[in-house]
Amino acid sequence: MKVKVINKSKHGLPQYQTAAAAGLDLNANLDQDIELKPLERVLVPTGLFMELPVGFEAQIRPRSGLAFKHGLSVLNSPGTIDADYRGEVKVLLVNLSNEPFVVKDGERVAQMVIARHEQIQWEEVALLEDSERAAGGFGSTGK
């Protein structure tokens, strides 16, 4: 699938790191480093603007290495970029560790996965079909 993109960053376009990767790594596009203190959050610009086809979304997700090694995550994970959004792609990073983390220009801060989605039409009813799970919620299926 082709996606129209404007790259106003100092970096190349996001790339898949392996042949079977689902996510493209997004790079920070910064004029100066950002120090992210414990429990702080920041919008990290990427310099990318895109036009997704209708019926698709971009999901912004944490990078597992940054999460494991440094406690960084995407706060609204996964963040959603709708097909009609034309603004700059930004990453809402949060530092969940006890140590400050410095985000540097060009650093791969998140990954972006393109996914197909559907829109629904509500059908109001008086009853829902029964299921094996029924109304069992959090923890109802075991550990």
TrEMBL record:
User: Could you provide one GO biological process annotation from this protein's UniProt record?
Assistant: dUTP catabolic process
Origin superkingdom? Bacteria
- Give the catalysed reaction(s), semicolon-separated: dUTP + H2O = dUMP + diphosphate + H(+)
Provide the alphabetized UniProt keywords. Answer: Hydrolase, Magnesium, Metal-binding, Nucleotide metabolism
Query: Which Enzyme Commission numbers does its entry carry?
Result: 3.6.1.23
Q: Using the UniProt record, name the top-level EC class of this enzyme in a single word.
A: hydrolase
Sites binding substrate sit at R63, S64, G65, N76, T80, I81, D82
According to its UniProt record, which cofactors does this protein need? Answer: Mg(2+)
| GO molecular function list | dUTP diphosphatase activity; magnesium ion binding
Q: Which Gene3D superfamilies match?
A: 2.70.40.10
Residue limits of the dUTPase-like domain?
Answer: 13-142
Supply the SUPFAM superfamilies for this chain: dUTPase-like (SSF51283)
Pathway stated in the Swiss-Prot or TrEMBL entry: Pyrimidine metabolism; dUMP biosynthesis; dUMP from dCTP (dUTP route): step 2/2
Q: What does this protein do?
A: This enzyme is involved in nucleotide metabolism: it produces dUMP, the immediate precursor of thymidine nucleotides and it decreases the intracellular concentration of dUTP so that uracil cannot be incorporated into DNA.
Family assignment from sequence similarity: Belongs to the dUTPase family.
Q: What is this protein called?
A: Deoxyuridine 5'-triphosphate nucleotidohydrolase
